[in-house]
Amino acid sequence: MSTAIERDWTDRPDTAQQWVHRAREVAEVLAADAVERDRLGATPHREVQLLKDSGLGTLLGPREHGGGGQSWETAYRVTREVAAGDGSLGQLLGYHYLWAWAVRLVGTPEQIAAVEELYTAGNLFFGGAVNPRDGDLVITDEGDEIAFNGTKSFSTGSKVSDLTVLEGVLRGTDQHVFAIVESAQDGIVFGDDWDNLGQRLTESGSVEIRDVRVPWSGAAGYVDKVFRPLVYNTLNVPTIQLVFANFYLGIAHGALQAGVSYTTRRTRPWPYGGDNKDTATEEFHVLDTYGDLQAKLWAAEALIDRAGAELSEILHTERESVTEQQRGEVAVRIAAAKQRIADTGLEIANRIFEVTGARATANEVGLDLYWRNLRTHTLHDPVPYKRAEVGRYALVGELPQPTWYT
């Protein structure tokens, strides 16, 4: 991958279509040795540098600071393209987009301007230590500063990030506080314990936060130690849930294309079926399977694209104008999209073996990578609860209420 990574990426795309093409170029580079890198499990410093060098890291950043100035609709399409080449890097990029936007979700106008200039002009990459299933980090008010302390089981991006989003609760209150800090500091200790079935290169292991201090001016959305909530603040969960759906879609697309490539090049026709064909691509069961899987993937993509267009419009509108009804309706659509692509992606990653053949299970082929990646992350939060959210809306018109997972 070294030659491809060292190519000149200095020219920057201008239109959404050009950015998607750039993402496809990056995906081709990543796909070339994705299986080998997954087996090795090394921290993907060079791969994240590729995302930065290609300009994808600043896709959502303001143009005046050298960013792409693109919409979330484009960011979602870019995420899925990268995930088709490498699911782990697709996840890292999608999470980065969410954390880069976090200041817009909850920050003051002054904080938004400062953070967007910082990360865009500096081409900085985000990680986050915000796992809701853990106890919150404890925040102590120390006058002009706040201090974060505690641990998180998961911290996606960890060692490959320049900036980390922290979240905790102010001691003695129910006030949640987000802040952005430098990742490389003594007070942030990464556990180096991410050793899971899939998404192996996301650096999603544990982290310990030891007395990380932030001035009150860096507490996102707080003015004079008081937070003024908006419905817009709660869009963090629908936004990240649709990130999930898009990199699931990318992984599923990569799986189907890998199956097609193997079937057309290497799968032998079955000579004992009574209707023998000269090539595997002429066999009815092969055509039937690929037709079924492609149709299901297109259907999931259409649903995801509809949700992406709807959410992108909301994310780029005036924050004060977003209503609970808008938020709830798009959350339902995203719940539907996520559960559909989770089911479809896992089916594709499993059934491609039926039309590639026994020799396709060789470790060097690496078709297992797609199923392992999807199986790992689709367990992030139970898909049946997403179906139930859609069911409540369909049956009684009930909208999902904002939580850390809805």
From TrEMBL:
The keyword DNA repair does not apply. One of its GO terms (molecular function) is 3-methylbutanoyl-CoA dehydrogenase activity. Gene3D superfamilies: Acyl-CoA dehydrogenase/oxidase, N-terminal domain, Butyryl-CoA Dehydrogenase, subunit A, domain 2, Butyryl-CoA Dehydrogenase, subunit A, domain 3. The lineage of its organism: Bacteria, Bacillati, Actinomycetota, Actinomycetes, Pseudonocardiales. One of its GO terms (biological process) is L-leucine catabolic process. Residues 17-112 form the Acyl-CoA dehydrogenase/oxidase N-terminal domain. This is Acyl-CoA dehydrogenase family protein. The keyword Iron does not apply. Residues 242-380 form the Acyl-CoA dehydrogenase C-terminal domain. Keywords: Flavoprotein, Oxidoreductase. SUPFAM superfamilies: Acyl-CoA dehydrogenase C-terminal domain-like, Acyl-CoA dehydrogenase NM domain-like. InterPro entries: Acyl-CoA_DH_C, Acyl-CoA_Oxase/DH_mid-dom_sf, AcylCo_DH-like_C, AcylCoA_DH/ox_N, AcylCoA_DH/ox_N_sf, AcylCoA_DH/oxidase_NM_dom_sf.
